[in-house]
């Protein structure tokens, strides 16, 4: 059984992050299973990250460039292979790994990210208190899917003669759509109730340090601006946003509890492998940003906890792993041979009590990449030991970043100029894994072609449609500030 959250910061699944908010069912998995301390998404945005998880391939191999361009509907997932091999399967909730989803605004923002002007694409992040101490079911859609999962366990899995595989995808703790900004608005409201706020230890909620805007890396500056975080925030605002985010994590944890309770009630818990993870994290105002779309730890690091028969209890695994490893892991647990060329490796050798498992073949690095909106260059992250190396675009036009995440946990000190030998070594390793300048060029061409096709399909309605996408929040102001850049861009598009 695999339970996947949305925007869950992996650092909350172990200390010291686990002290900030009470997550009893995550703690249950941690005590009776294995916790992976260094798990990363392969792309810090919804659809591409899930494409990696379901396909077992890096996003540059599946060409899952953004929330609109992901896997084909007929792609073979590990759930497909389980079903073909006799498993009773069920998928509930947020799946989001095939092409064609998400809003038009989201697509256009990804296609036009190379344009040399800034538009605020998101609503300003805010916290919203609703209900009272009896208000527990806030994300109704997730609760309905959780109820369906528990019901399926009780009524189908419990009486099935075949082994079962259940996937439950949650929306929480992703922020809610800011309704006051209209139907095209993104999710910038962190919403919870007094009940869930009691699960948070407010004295442990930190106010993250920020670099001055002028000292930011150019891609981080772009992200901060387009996420509408460039204006002033009070410490109280920042702390409230973070507190409400942690409360939303507590509500998601309770949904995991419903699933565990159903398994226990039907006597299935002892012989079921339970996996909890997320598609990506949530910055929650770290680095003057919210959401994901960044290689900073809050965005790129995800939880991974695995509990089940024949697996070690109370184990903390330091090995670097990523979401592409789930595909071969699930198949090895089920005793099914993997097909095709997979990017990941099974984590079973790291946590099994049996010696009759595959040899650990994990490399000493993980790869993540990002090609979507709110970042104006294709981004590639290589984590090796205590180093995090971030390269951009063609490797020349945008400067790289290098962090020692062991001594600089806040990732505020880019030391790429201090360690040129390390940068050269890591860049060479990165290029041996992916020809990132070539991939960046392919994404750039894809974006221009897709935008041109979309523009042409609208005909005379183009001007009205593009003016009413969600960036219309500051459209009039931003148009005036960037008129020359927009004229230049439109002229360049006419030559496509």
TrEMBL record:
Q: What's the cofactor?
A: Ca(2+)
| Enzyme Commission code(s) on record | 3.1.6.1, 3.1.6.18
GO terms for MF: arylsulfatase activity; glucuronate-2-sulfatase activity; metal ion binding
A GO CC term? extracellular region
Keywords assigned by UniProt, alphabetized: Calcium, Glycoprotein, Hydrolase, Lysosome, Metal-binding, Secreted, Signal
The enzyme's first-digit EC class, named in words, is hydrolase
**Domain Sulfatase N-terminal intervals:** 21-336
Location in the cell: Lysosome; Secreted
Record's catalysed reaction(s): an aryl sulfate + H2O = a phenol + sulfate + H(+); Hydrolysis of the 2-sulfate groups of the 2-O-sulfo-D-glucuronate residues of chondroitin sulfate, heparin and heparitin sulfate
Question: Could you tell me which InterPro entries the record lists for this protein?
Answer: Alkaline_phosphatase_core_sf, GAG-degrading_sulfatase, Sulfatase_N
Which protein family is named in the record?
Belongs to the sulfatase family.
Q: What does this protein do?
A: Catalyzes the hydrolysis of pseudosubstrates such as p-nitrocatechol sulfate and p-nitrophenyl sulfate. Catalyzes the hydrolysis of the 2-sulfate groups of the 2-O-sulfo-D-glucuronate residues of chondroitin sulfate, heparin and heparitin sulfate. Acts selectively on 2-sulfoglucuronate and lacks activity against 2-sulfoiduronate.
Name listed for the protein in its UniProt record: Arylsulfatase K
Q: Which organism is it from?
A: Xiphophorus maculatus
